[in-house]
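Page 42, continued from yesterday. The earlier attempt failed because a stray header line got pasted into the input along with the sequence. Redoing it now with the clean sequence only.
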Amino acid sequence: MRYLGLDLGSRTLGIAVSDPTGLIASSYGVIRHQEEYPELVEKVKQLVEELHIDQIVLGFPKNMNNTIGPKGELSIQFQKMLLDAVSIPVVLEDERLTTKLANDVLIQADVSRKGRKGVVDEVAASLILQAYLDRREKE
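This time it went through. Structure tokens are written below.
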């Protein structure tokens, strides 16, 4: 089974994909957007078809107290839009602290501040997807 991991930001969509066995997540890229969500959904739909994706894992930004704020609500709406556009499952995965962890990983790899800005969302997407894959493997 092949998975697509997504990290929806206000101006970017970080993308990660799993290997065909569904065990390892890898960064795939970033789609820049201006909050044109229907167009963004179409781009994701194209990726699903091109990469033969079986399931989408969408980051779900909950607040630290486990409540759902405006960004979490946006992810729920984006999930609904994706479900209407593709014929595969779209699951939400808690993404608390993944952007900070992604930045920490990039800092440890000695990536410049400017370089981090360009890849942090795709690294966060791969962390979200890997967390989902690891949990699924344990179950």
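Notes: The chain has a mean pLDDT of 88.
Reminder to self: strip header lines before submitting.
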